[in-house]
Specification:
36% of the residues lie in helices and 25% in strands. It is α+β, with helices and mostly antiparallel strands. The protein is flat, with a radius of gyration of 31 Å.
């Protein structure tokens, strides 16, 4: 299909009787007329030479194989265009739309006419990687197309000229139309779904049923997690190898640090892949899809790390480690959260290019380890995801080493086993190296246990008012273990605020992640007007423990100190969303700030009313009790119709004071 000098692409017939063809809106551009080549068979063989079509246009016109088309309608929403052809040759057939939605991993094929190839009617094959709402759309001539469309993301190396081509499943049914390519993500072709094409055509939807899940892609989804989903610098995946054990890459992780982990969401009959569903850790927690985990071990040379979750999930299923290392040419299947896409839990397939001894860590002196080199659409910024063989067994974890195009790296299963033998020191050793690691760790382990004992006794002395004895025990504890949290906290509680802050700074620097240390330091920082420091500590806590209401309300205080009332209101609304029983403490914090504002702006009741309206809106959004939500809605409506700001302020204050936990909660 050609639209003079504006565009070229593909298309397919959807109604023979009405001579209707569908293509992409950006292919027809703003033209009302387009030229369309139809398949030409010579001596029973399909002509595929592009030049033959171009230099035989007069003959093809006479034969009805080069026809004009009138653009009947277009849609920016779906990037679709409907074209009425002047004629169709005898024997022309319309496509049949699929009655089953394709599943992740299912093999798809597209017919198109890439302009950088000398042939036409080219077939490109690849698996479905994921599907969902296209929240970002894509640009064409300064405007966004397909914003919010239902899209398939396929591992198809398509390009200009393929747009508008039909995408078929293995049964020859159309599941969508090839429309664009996410160039910021390797091998991510955007396919507008058959359901959106039918909507555009005003054709009643089929009773579409999901196909049986593709077993390997399903297994990868159930075993893959997203570590630190709120991070923007790296999109770190991980692989469950036991119900509560995650194997991932070493990038950005520190031993004994705590991290938040998102589990895959299941909504009805589909796994949720849209990234927008994973941006709110609290919402994930409320859906039991968020966990806290501690980093047990890290090996930079192998680019591996091990995380233990506080609890597992019945919706996930670990992968077993393959007994053998795959050979060059063996198939690989992978899952990751690639950058450049608005989707996570994205499937890919490839093969082993080679095995060898390579350095995965950075630096000229980095040691070499046994590595798989894969032919995969991998990204260094999206590491940690699983690699499995055709039996669905784990053969590697995507490393963070930067590679050439279509190259990914992973330590072999032999290296993984060696790493786990050292990392899981609470289990019997399987190798001499594992045994030596356990023996070497005994002195440090005993020192930590003894330091913990001193710390517990110190706190007992402090509670009893025996401060000299408490100080002595704390000193012994930190001599044995500089990161002993119990001793550092006990010292901080005995010191004046400035010295206590310094003590907690040392605890954060030398010790592991500890919620109490960070919350206590944030409280002291707020008292010293160190609001940014407090915000950082509390956001770190909430990234790991999003349901911590004390940290959430402390964060609101930090935001108020920074003058950001909107974020403070959101934090208070989230506290109520977490635990409705916090509504009284939230109401007190709200009125306390209202008192501060009223003293600061005695002649501006509108300023106080604005704060109360903002925070009530956030509480209304967070409240899960219909009666309370309704009462706040009525209060805001009543306040909006008040005659003046003072009357509005009076109504809002009275309404907040009346907030309480309903009976039965």
């Amino acid at each position: 299909m050609r639209a003079e000098n504006d565009g070229a692409g593909s298309g397919f017939v959807v109604d023979v009787q009405k001579r209707l063809l569908v293509t992409c809106r950006h292919v027809v551009a703003d033209r009302k007329k387009v030229d369309v080549f139809l398949p030409w068979y010579r001596d029973g063989e399909l002509v595929t030479d592009r030049r033959e079509y171009l230099r035989n246009r007069p003959m093809l016109r006479e034969s009805g194989l080069f026809v004009s088309g009138t653009v009947l309608k277009t849609s920016d929403e779906f990037d679709l265009a409907l074209v009425e052809l002047e004629s169709l040759p005898n024997g022309a057939k319309a496509v049949a739309f699929a009655t089953q939605a394709p599943q992740m991993g299912e093999l798809l094929r597209v017919i198109g006419h890439r302009i950088d190839l000398d042939t036409v009617w080219n077939t490109t094959v690849g698996p479905l990687r994921t599907s969902g709402k296209l929240s970002d759309g894509y640009f064409w001539h300064g405007k966004k197309l397909a914003l919010g469309a239902n899209a398939l993301i396929a591992q198809l190396p398509t390009d200009e000229g393929d747009s508008g081509g039909p995408v078929f499943n293995a049964r020859g049914e159309v599941v969508g139309m090839d429309c664009a390519l996410r160039r910021s993500c390797p091998l991510a072709a955007i396919v507008i779904s058959a359901s959106d094409i039918r909507t555009f055509l005003n054709v009643p939807p089929n009773s579409v049923k999901d196909a049986e899940p593709a077993s390997i892609a399903e297994a990868l989804t159930r075993a893959t997690v997203w570590i630190r989903p709120t991070a923007t610098d790296v999109h770190l995946a991980g692989t469950l190898i036991e119900k509560d054990l995650i194997l991932t890459c070493a990038r950005g992780l520190t031993v004994m640090d705590r991290v938040g982990v998102a589990l895959p969401l299941h909504d009805g009959d589909r796994w949720v892949s849209e990234r927008s569903a994973y941006r709110d850790p609290l919402a994930l927690h409320l859906r039991t899809a968020y966990r806290s985990g501690v980093v047990l071990a890290r090996d930079a040379a192998r680019d591996l790390a091990l995380i233990r979750l506080d609890s597992g999930s019945d919706h996930t299923k670990p992968l077993s480690l393959a007994p053998r290392v795959p050979k060059p040419g063996d198939a690989l299947h992978a899952m990751s959260h690639p950058g450049g896409l608005e989707f996570a839990w994205v499937y890919a397939t490839g093969a082993v290019r080679q095995r060898g001894c390579l350095a995965l860590d950075a630096g000229e002196k980095a040691p070499v380890v046994n590595v798989l080199v894969g032919q995969l659409p991998a990204q260094a910024g999206s590491p940690g995801g699983p690699l499995v063989n055709v039996r669905g067994e784990l053969v590697g974890v995507l490393a963070s080493r930067e590679g050439a195009q279509q190259v990914g790296y992973a330590a072999t299963t032999d290296e993984i086993r060696a790493f786990l033998d050292v990392a899981l020191c609470d289990r019997p050793a399987r190798t001499l190296t594992g045994l030596l690691a356990r023996v070497e760790s005994i002195p440090a382990h005993q020192a930590r246990l003894l330091a913990r004992g001193f710390g517990l006794r110190a706190e007992h002395h402090r509670s009893a008012g025996l401060f000299a004895e408490a100080k002595c025990d704390c000193d012994h504890a930190v001599m044995l273990d500089a990161g002993c949290v119990g001793a550092r906290l006990c010292r901080a509680l005995m010191f004046e605020p400035e010295a206590a802050l310094a003590e907690l700074d040392t605890a954060v620097e030398k010790g592991p992640f500890h919620r109490d240390v960070l919350v206590r330091r944030a409280v002291l920082a707020i008292g010293a007007k160190g609001f940014r420091k407090a915000r950082g500590d509390l956001e770190r806590v909430l990234d790991v423990c999003p349901a911590d209401t004390e940290a959430r309300e402390g964060l609101a205080r930090a935001f108020l100190g920074l003058g950001d009332d909107t974020k403070a209101a959101t934090a208070l609304g989230d506290s109520v969303r977490t635990d409705f029983h916090r509504i009284k403490s939230v109401a007190k914090l709200v009125t306390d700030h209202a008192d501060v504002l009223e003293q600061k702006f005695p002649d501006s009741p509108g300023t106080v009313s604005e704060w109360l309206t903002k925070v009530l809106g956030a509480i209304e959004k967070g409240a899960r009790d219909p009666k309370t939500k309704g009462a706040i809605t009525d209060l805001l409506k009543s306040a909006s119709s008040a005659q003046n700001d003072r009357e509005r302020l009076k109504l809002l204050r009275a309404g907040i004071s009346a907030l309480r936990v309903p009976a039965g909660h």
